[in-house]
Design a protein that fits this description.
Order of helices and strands: HHHHHEEHEHEHEEHHEHEE
CATH superfamily of the largest domain: Vaccinia Virus protein VP39
Largest sheet: 7 strands, mixed
Strand content: 15-25%
Number of strands: 9
CATH class of the largest domain: Alpha Beta
CATH topology of the largest domain: Rossmann fold
Bound molecules: glutamine
Structural class: alpha/beta
Length: about 280
């Protein structure tokens, strides 16, 4: 069978099973089996696939269609800020919204030499991408999950930032040490009563620990803000990614902890997604 025929078969099957991104998912699966980027792969649609390749294709397509397994876990990879990242079920799949955080910080701190802390680094997507932009900077990445740290380390090696990041297995509460110019976090921020309403591919596959933010979704956010107050340098910046509709509450917590908001960034759907803030000094 040729790639053209397989794309048709796969897309129809995924569509029938309510996968919205049916074409792109099929193309990603197929190009991955062929060992090429999707863009390159699509140039020639007459490629012949062997029976073994077709079997792999059928297996991945049915896992996507029937169990709703996310593409990033099926292929064990995800692109973020043009970096190829290794991904498995131990880490949250990096989201395009998080690229907005990286973009905002890269612009704000252009050419600066910073010492940063990434709280709940997961796949390492934020700190790795940011350090690629800010070549003179370095930082520490912490996570409560050892599985995540293993992936993040691997990703920093593949993406040439390993020598500028120290990885530590710790929660923000138990973390003591240096003072930072910048603290970044995309903490788990889904309220636990809302976890059941998430899409199947998130709910059944992504690590709960990376999503669950407690009763109102802000348990970890509060801890990060509270601790940042103690471990930021004077004029240091705290950059947070927040969930939909959380701006007012997070804003209040920041104010209570003597933070002054400096930058607010909205996402593609016009939700306030990132807040950069600094401490007030009297
Ligand atoms: N920092 C990682 C990311 O932004 C992981 C975040 C998390 O697990 N909540 O994707």
């Amino acid at each position: 069978m040729t790639s053209d025929e397989l794309i048709k078969i796969g897309s129809v099957f995924l569509k029938k099973n309510n996968i919205k991104s049916y074409t792109i998912d099929t193309e990603l699966i197929l190009s991955n089996i062929f060992g090429q980027s999707r863009e390159k792969f699509l140039v020639n649609l007459d490629i012949k696939f062997s029976q073994a390749q077709i079997d792999t294709f059928n297996n991945l397509i049915s896992r996507r269609a029937l169990s709703k397994e996310p593409i990033a876990y099926l292929l064990n990879k995800k692109e973020f800020w043009s970096n190829k990242l290794n991904i498995d079920k131990g880490v949250l799949i990096p989201r395009p919204e998080t690229e907005i955080l990286v973009e905002g910080l890269a612009k704000y701190f252009k050419n600066r030499q910073l010492f940063m802390l990434d709280v709940g680094t997961g796949s390492g997507c934020i700190i790795i991408s940011l350090l690629q932009e800010l070549k003179k900077s370095r930082g520490i990445a912490i996570d409560v999950s050892n599985k995540a740290l293993k992936i993040a380390k691997k990703n920093s090696k593949i993406n040439n930032t390993f020598d500028r990041i120290k990885f530590i297995n710790s929660s923000i509460c138990n973390f003591y040490g240096s003072k930072f110019d910048l603290i970044i976090s995309n903490p788990p921020y889904i309220a636990n009563h809302q976890l059941k309403n998430l899409e199947d591919d998130i709910k059944f596959f992504e690590p709960k620990i990376a999503l669950d933010g407690g009763n109102d979704g802000l348990d970890v956010m509060r801890k990060v803000i509270y601790k940042s107050r103690k471990i930021l340098k004077i004029n240091g910046m705290l950059a947070l990614e927040i969930g939909n509709g959380q701006y007012k509450k997070v804003s209040q917590i920041l104010k209570l902890n003597k933070f002054r908001e400096k930058v607010i960034i909205r996402d593609y759907k016009d939700n306030i997604r990132c807040i950069f803030s600094m401490l007030n000094h009297y």
